[in-house]
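Box 3.1 — From sequence to structure: Cox cluster protein
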Amino acid sequence: MGGRRVFLVIGVSVVLISGILGVFIGENGGQVAESIQLFGVLSLPTTPVAFALYGMVVSVFALAALFGLVEFASRLEEA
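Predicted structure (token representation):
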């Protein structure tokens, strides 16, 4: 299994786990507050779907940044 395939499997797994955790957190968070403010800019309703999507989107961006840094470091090493 190549390095890129390993990163892909890890990335997909993390995004799926983030979505599953978002469903559980959204389910329980709805009992505490109707919505939450994110960074003072975005109002997110405390529903399972909203939290799952938010968790998955944040995970995708974080992993893309990390994997991009790994790719950059790999190219520097080869040069």
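Summary of the box: The helical segments are 3-29, 48-78.
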